[in-house]
Specification:
The chain is α/β, with parallel strands linked by helices and 319 residues long. It is built from nine helices and 14 strands.
Length: 319
């Protein structure tokens, strides 16, 4: 029977409560996007990925289908492949099929999706030692000694999730992961590229309202898990492209002056005040290669589609 090793490195529920209260008492208000991904949030995000307006997932998948063998050749054999945010594992399968690594380490914050993906992957690739890490990859992460992950390592970070960090935070994040990968490590990273503002804004304001439901699900989660009393009808979804910053911003806007109670704290909202729930930074190919260099990586290649909507970047580390 296929099986995998499972390690739970996630902080207790109190960490979410503290993060949410800190974000809602900050100016301006904000919530880390990692809290989107409860079971309903994962299902809604999968639905977003299938929407006609949302080009990133299908474009990245097409790039992976065409170029996975070349990516595997660049990574090289006998490396542990570490994937951050494995999601539903659709892209993982393409890379694993081409690479056939001795070990695969899946890192995700969403428990059910992580377990479902690892169950499926161990059945599809029984010869690959699979390790599941339930962890917050935004925080410093040390691989468990008990996992015995091979010293030669490659990072796979698909889905343009790197865009959820500011450029400075992305640089710090990649530099931190360089120490996990070690001398001679490498990284394969999916990045949403800069493009027409109308196309970007349509991708985050779909006609069916799925992205709005995904955003609003945060408030439902906080009501359910943290005992908050958000009135969902008094908030609305907003998403727009900030041309100067080169990023999409998603917000939840308060429709009136109100006070929300969460974790014993009274959180006052003015009418039209927002909670920023996500940023998604967009890069040119040169900008992201420069960011990789600043984090200590050596740019090697970027695979993209004909329209240059999306890029999958390959970096090496010295050694």
């Amino acid at each position: 029977m296929p099986h995998y090793a499972y390690f739970d490195l996630l902080p207790p529920q109190a960490a979410m409560r503290d993060d949410v209260i800190a974000g809602l008492t900050d100016t301006p208000k904000k919530i880390p996007p990692k809290y989107f991904y409860d079971a309903r949030g994962c299902a809604l995000f999968d639905a977003i990925c299938a929407l006609p307006e949302y080009y990133p997932t299908r474009t990245e998948l097409a790039i992976m289908r065409e170029h996975a063998p070349a990516m595997a050749a660049a990574i090289g054999g006998e490396r542990a492949l570490i994937e951050i945010g494995c999601g539903n594992s659709e892209k993982s399968r393409l890379l694993l099929d081409a690479l056939r690594p001795p070990e695969f380490v899946a890192v995700d914050i969403a428990t059910e999706q992580l377990q479902t993906s690892c169950d499926a992957l161990t059945q599809a690739f029984p010869q690959v030692k699979t390790i599941a890490l339930r962890a917050d990859f935004e925080r410093p992460l040390a691989l468990p000694v008990a996992a015995a992950v091979a010293p030669r390592r490659a990072l796979y970070f698909p889905g343009s999730t790197i865009g959820n960090f500011t450029s400075a935070a992305a640089r710090e994040f990649l530099a931190r992961w360089a120490s996990v990968l070690g001398s001679g490590g490498c990284a394969l990273i999916g990045v949403d590229l800069k493009k027409d503002r109308a196309r970007l804004e349509a991708a985050y304001n779909d006609a069916q309202g799925v992205t709005a439901a995904f955003n609003m699900n945060l408030l439902e989660r906080f009501n359910r898990e943290l005992g908050a009393n958000f009135e969902l009808a008094q908030f609305r979804h907003r998403a727009f492209y900030d041309t100067t910053a080169g990023r999409i911003e998603m917000h939840l806007e308060s429709l009136r002056q109100q006070t929300v109670v969460i974790g014993g704290h009274d959180i006052a909202f003015a009418a039209q005040e927002t909670i920023r729930t996500e940023i998604s930074c967009k890069y040119s190919i040169d900008e992201f290669q420069q960011l990789g260099r600043a984090a200590g990586y050596i740019p090697q290649h970027c695979w993209t589609d004909a329209e240059q909507l999306f890029g999958v970047f390959f970096f090496a580390l010295p050694g």
